[in-house]
From TrEMBL:
Residue ranges constituting the N-acetyltransferase domain according to the UniProt record: 1-134
Statement: the UniProt record of this protein carries the keyword Transmembrane: no
EC number: 2.3.-.-
Protein name as catalogued: GNAT family N-acetyltransferase
Naturally occurring in which organism (per UniProt): Cohnella cellulosilytica
GO terms assigned for molecular function: acyltransferase activity
CDD domains in the record: NAT_SF
SUPFAM superfamilies: Acyl-CoA N-acyltransferases (Nat)
Keywords: Acyltransferase, Transferase
Entry coiled-coil feature ranges: none
Keyword Acyltransferase attached: yes
Pfam families: Acetyltransf_1 (PF00583)
Length: 134
């Protein structure tokens, strides 16, 4: 698998799958190098996007791996790649979150993330906030 910064050529692949973000924000995140595209043999298979909590703590917003490629370690690989990049940039802490009814919380805990709090929005499952010291 290859991990690269997404480019405008990857926009269509992302927008067709990412229903959690406005298309204009995807373009902005691509320009700011806040989306990684995952490729297997030059085929797009997923992405990871991030931002910054309180404008200074890297926050992984979303990982997406196409169904046919799940369970092969690609998610773990992109998370570790991102963490190393954040470490190189001088960050000491990273964050992410997941809904309490999603299995992703177990994935993050296996990678060393620890529960740090939660957010409860009306008519939504509990959002679990996870952090990891780098």
């Amino acid at each position: 698998m290859k991990i690269e910064y997404a480019t405008q050529e990857d926009y269509q692949f992302i927008i067709e799958r990412d229903k959690h973000i406005n298309g204009l924000l995807i373009r902005s995140k691509i320009r700011e190098h806040e989306i990684f595209i995952l490729r297997d043999q030059n085929q797009e298979i997923g992405w990871m996007r991030y931002g910054h909590f309180w404008d200074n703590i890297p926050f992984m917003n979303m990982i997406w791996i196409d169904e046919d490629y799940r369970g092969r370690g690609f998610g773990k690989e992109v998370v570790l790649h991102w963490e190393e990049l954040m470490r190189q940039r001088g960050f000491k802490l990273v964050m992410t979150s997941t809904l309490s009814n999603e299995d992703a919380q177990h994935f993050y805990r296996k990678l060393g993330y620890r529960d740090s709090g939660c957010l409860l929005l009306e008519d939504e499952p509990l959002e679990v906030i996870l952090v990891k010291k780098l």
